[in-house]
Structures are given as structure tokens and as C-alpha cells.
Amino acid sequence: MDYFTWKSIASAPACRAIRSGAETWALPNGGFFSGGRVYTHGLQTKRGTCYVVCREVMRDVDATKFEMFATRAARQAILILQGWAGRREYPVEVIDETPKRYRVKLLGDESALLPGRRQLEPGGVALVPKTAVKIDCQATP
Length: 141
Hints:
Layout: E1 7-8, H1 11-19, E2 23-26, E3 32-34, E4 37-44, E5 50-54, H2 55-73, E6 76-83, E7 86-97, E8 101-106, E9 112-114, E10 118-120, E11 125-129, E12 133-135
Parallel strand pairs: 1-5
Antiparallel strand pairs: 2-4, 3-4, 4-5, 6-7, 6-12, 7-8, 8-11, 9-10
Helix pairs in contact: 1-2
Keywords: Plasmid
């Protein structure tokens, strides 16, 4: 591959690409020097566009990866449902996240009745509002 013809990428777009699932890898032979910068890594977005990443930008990308890893580690949570019979709490595991909802998997052996008369069986997966989920930082393995 001819890495010398790839475009470089700035810090903010690189971090945004990492959050959306881009991959990075080290360039062979330690990278190359161009325009006063040392390009050490390559970045490929989900759409397939490839960029070269300099050392300074790679520090920010690594910090973003660490931040994503740290937030993913907090997967155990409590699903809080309030109804006419009172407040019920169920242990769940957060699987995925959308802008307004969490996709959770119900842990334990008790089924939960979600709003809209939806029944969530143990081990079942459902989308619930973020306001109904409390992330439990103490329960991380």
C-alpha cells in the first residue's frame, strides 16, 4: 500500500471516527516523516476511507479509546420501573446505547413488566429509556 498518498486527519475528526467504530494500526517500518510531522499509524473509517495519523493526534485517539473502554466497563446497571404498585428494581446488563435509550439484558431469575405491557423474561433483551437505568459503577468485574 502507498501510505504516502493518503490524507492526514486532525484530532477532532479522528476521535469522532474512533467513537463511531474506525480502526487504527501501526504503519510498517515505524511510519514516515512528512511536513514536519511523523506519521506512525493508519486509520480506516467504517466507510473504508483511509488516513495517516501523526504522533500528536494518536495521543488523542488513544485517550479516546481509553475513555470508551472505561465507560464500557461499567456494564452492570439497575433497571428502575415505577408503577401503581410501587418502585421495582431489576439487575440488568447494558449491551448497547442509542442517543435516548439503552439496550439491556435482564439478569437474575425474575421477569419484568415493562411499560406498554411488555414482558421481559430473564435473559431477554429490550430497549428502555436512559432515565429508567441507573449505571452501577460498584458492580463492575
